[in-house]
Design a protein that fits this description.
There is one protein chain. By secondary structure, this protein is of the alpha+beta class. It has one domain. 33% of the residues lie in helices and 13% in strands. It is built from four helices and three strands. It is globular and about 25 Å long. The model has no long low-confidence stretch (mean pLDDT 82). The structure holds zinc ion (ZN). Zinc ion (ZN) binds next to loops.
């Protein structure tokens, strides 16, 4: 599958399709999380229902 075909896809769709490599490029510095499937992404446009990640809380999010 070419990059052009994957560019228009949501993170959620890339994961669902098993395209983890393409998906990883879109979430190396996540600013948003999908309200539907909880995927993270750098840009809101990569998600179905983007919610902004709170940067101040982000550092402690996983602890
Ligand atoms: Zn989603």
């Amino acid at each position: 599958m070419s990059a052009e075909q994957t560019d228009g896809r949501k993170m959620c769709e890339l994961h669902a399709a098993g395209l983890m490599e393409q998906a990883d490029h879109r979430c190396d510095d996540p600013k948003f999380v999908c309200g539907k499937c909880r995927r993270k992404a750098n840009k809101a446009e990569y998600l179905h229902n983007p919610l902004a990640l709170k940067k101040s809380a982000g550092d402690n999010f996983w602890s």
